[in-house]
Amino acid sequence: MLKLVFFLIFLCPLCFMNNMYWMVQILLFFISFVFLLMNNFMNYWSEISYFLGLDMLSYGLILLSLWICSLMLLASESVNKYNNYKNLFLLNVILLLLLLILTFSSMNLFMFYLFFESSLIPTLFLILGWGYQPERLQAGIYLLFYTLLVSLPMLIGIFYLMNYMGTMNFYLMNNYMFNFDLLYFCMLCAFLVKMPMFLVHLWLPK
Predict the structure, then answer these.
(1) Which residue in 10, 52, 140, 193 could disulfide with 1, CB within 3.0 to 4.6 Å?
(2) What whole-number distance in Å separates Cα of residue 8 and Cα of residue 165?
(3) Is the pTM of this model over 0.90?
(4) Considering Cα of 82, then 71, then 131, then 61, what sign does the dihedral take?
(5) Structure confidence by residue, pLDDT tens digits, 139-171
(6) Given 3-state DSSP classes, what are the helix, strand and coil percentages for the chain, each rounded to the nearest 5?
(7) Other CB atoms within 10 Å distance of the CB of residue 14
(8) Is 59 exposed, middle or buried (0-12, 13-18, 19+ CB in 10 A)?
C-alpha cells in the first residue's frame, strides 16, 4: 500500500509544473490499471504494512476512488482551458485521493476516522473554489457543520469500543460480538451525512 501512497505524494510537485495537467491525469489512469493488477482475490487481508492493508471491500473502494478522481480531471477540461487555478485544482484532487486511499486501507478504527474526516478539507476547497452554483459558500458551510457535528457521536462510539474491547484493529475486532443499537446508530450517522441521506442533504443541491 505504501507504494501507492508514495506515488501520490511524489505526484504533488508535478501539479505546479507548467503544462502538466494531462500528464497527471494519464499517470492517475496508469496507477489505477496497476492497482487493478495488484489484487490477489483473497478474502483476507493483503498488502499489509504498519497500519494499512487491503481486503476485497477496501480494494473495490480504492479502485473506485482512483477511477472517479481520474474522471474528475477528464471532465474538468474547462479548468485547464481557462487556467482557473488549475495547479491548485490538481493538488486538491491528488490530496483528496490520497486521503481516501488512506481511509479505505486503514486497519485501525481511529486512523480510519481521522483520514475520513480529513477528506472533508479538500472537498470543501473544491466546492468553494470550483463550484458552479452561486450558493457554493452556503453549501460548503452546510457540509462542514453537518459533518463535524454528526461525526462527534462516531468518535465517542470509537472510544467506547476501545474501552470495551481494548483494541482498535479491525482484524482483532472480529473476535467480539456486541449488540448495541445506539452505538450502531452513532457510528452510522457520519456515513449518512456523506451519502447524503434525506434531511442531511441540504448541502448537495447547492
Answers:
(1) 52
(2) 35
(3) no
(4) negative
(5) 788 888 888 888 888 888 888 888 888 878 877
(6) 70, 5, 25
(7) 16
(8) buried
